[in-house]
Every structure is written in C-alpha cells, then in structure tokens.
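Weekly modeling sync, notes
Attendees: S.R. (lead), two postdocs, one rotation student

Agenda item 3: backlog of single-chain predictions. S.R. asked that every request posted to the team notebook include the full sequence so nobody has to chase files. The rotation student volunteered to paste the first one in as an example of the format we agreed on. Action items at the bottom.

Example entry:
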Amino acid sequence: MPAPWPSMPPPWPPTPATPHRHHDAARANYARALSRVNAALADPRTAVQDQTLVAVLVLALFEATVFQDSGSSSSSSAPTSWVAHTWGAMQLLMLRGPDQLASSLVARQLFAHASNNIKASCIQRSAPIPQPFLEFDGRVRGLLDGRDLAVPLADLLHKVCAIKARAREEQERSLVLLLEALQVDQEIIAFCDAPPPTLSFTREPFLQGPAWTYQRIVHTYASLRLCKVWNAVRLLRIFLLSLLGDDIAHCRVDETLAESHTLSGLNEYARKHMAEVASDILATVPSFVHTENGTRTFLSAGRCLGWPLGILELSTVCPPDASRYARRTLEWLAEDLNLPQAIDPERHPGSRDDW
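Predicted structure, as returned to the notebook:
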C-alpha cells in the first residue's frame, strides 16, 4: 500500500492578494482532505478507486497553486508536498494495475493525466523517470485511446527526461549528449510538421494580430487544453535548445572527434530554432488573456506560461526582443494572478545548470 501522506500541511506565506482568513481556511480544508486521503489509502478497497486518485491529483494541484518559491538556489525547485502527491499518484497507478484502463473512459483519462504529471515532475527536477513506472507505462500504453494527446507524446517525453537527467549528472556536457539532444529535437520537429488531426491549430495571417502581441503574431486553438499541449511540446524543444546553446561552453569534447565548427554549428542551430519556438510560445499568450471593455486580464490557466517564459527570458540563445517580451509578460502574469515568484530575481540563479 502507498505510504500515508504527510499529516500536516506545509506552511506557505500569505500574499497580499490572499487575506489571512482565506489562507487559514485553505490550510484547514487541506488538512481535512489530507486526513481523508490517508484513510482511503489505508483501506485496500478504497485505495484503488478513481475518487482516491482524483483526490491525490487535486491535492497536488492545490500545492502547485499555492506554492511560493522561497528563494531556492535551483530553478527546478518544486514544492515538496507537490512532489510527494505526484509520487503517490505514481504508486496508485501501479497499484491499480492494467485493469484500471479497461474499467472506464474516466479511468483512462485519469491515467493519462497522472502519468503526465509524473513525467513533468521528473523533467522539472531533472530526475530520471523511475524504471518500474517506465516499464508499467510501456505495458499499458496500448490500452489507451490512440486519440488521447498523451499517447503520441509519451516517447518524446521519455527521451527529453532522460537527456535532462543525464545533463544534470554530468559536470560538463559531452558531445554525445549534445548530438542526442539534436536528434531528439529533430524528432520533435518531424512530429510538429505532421501532427495528428486532433492537434491542428490556426496560424493567423502574419502581422495581423493586436498591436500588444509579440510581432503581431497570433495562433488560434480549438481549446486551451490543445494550446497547453502544443506549449508542452515547445517546452521540450526549449529544454533541448537550451542545452545546445546556453550550456555549450561546458561541452567536453575530444578534439580528434569534434572541431570548433561543430560546436559553433550547434550553437547557430540553437539560436535559429529558439527564435522560432519563442515566437510560437509568445503567439499563444492571447489565448490566455480575457479582454473586456478594453481591459486585458490573464485567465487563471495562464499560469502554465510561467515555466517557458521564465526560460526564454534568461536564455542566451533567445532573441533579445523575445526575451524582453517574455519578461514583460511575466510581470503582467505575476500581477494578474498573484504570482510574485514568476518575477522573483532569485528564482533562476541556477538556471544554467538546471535548464
């Protein structure tokens, strides 16, 4: 059985937009929910029910929502309890076994959602996906709906996660790792050039977007979920291009195997493609903005932009104008959604190592 979750909610500082009474009420409700989840986990019958997995995912969402970065030295820092809930979800998925996917559409959707959370957690922390879960994921993937957006992206997620974990372990970057990153990036490009019909979106006419948008370039998506999926794919490319560009100075190469023009070529590749990816990311900003009576306000779903924008702002291979726009958008996001950590000057001191 999965181990019980921590019995006490973690402390987080109230912010100006969150009065103490709301903060205290949230902590009390969180504590009660945590107690109920632990009770469900203690019973083998309820531990495998959909509602228990949903409860764990909701607790993780709550942690991600209230988390305030306390000035960690790593840009990949994450709330400890969020990681605990995500890891707990992984244990529940394996406890439920393959039969969970045959029970209902909801169960399959829950698996896809929880599985993506687990992989995102690994990528954020530059940690490898645990081998037992990788093997389990491989066994059950064929039982998922092929139209589910998580299915075609699974292999790419696994490859990027593995590269990111290896990069964190190596004090210096090896040419082999850089070339693997290049190969995976080209695989992602091939996926983007011929996506499944369910991933189609519209690139609006060039320079026809509102004046406040980046280079007046705008994309239109059928749903915010579809937009998030595309940005997740682009975020994978940002990780790889950052490795090829920002960290190329750390490359460890045998001069008999690689010449200087090899590294300069990789850096040029990173700059060219980062400009394209940055433009695509910034073209999605309007999708997360509500306009009423001339006033523009970020929707709560706009929180998902924080991660890619934070990397674009600091990347040495991102075009300067895109970096500046990313910074301004982060400031806007921080104000509208009460996310001071999005513009905390200490939030990325280790970004060159963590990318």
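Discussion: group reviewed the output briefly. The two ends are 35 Å apart (CA to CA).
Action items: rotation student to repeat for the remaining queue; S.R. to check formatting next week.
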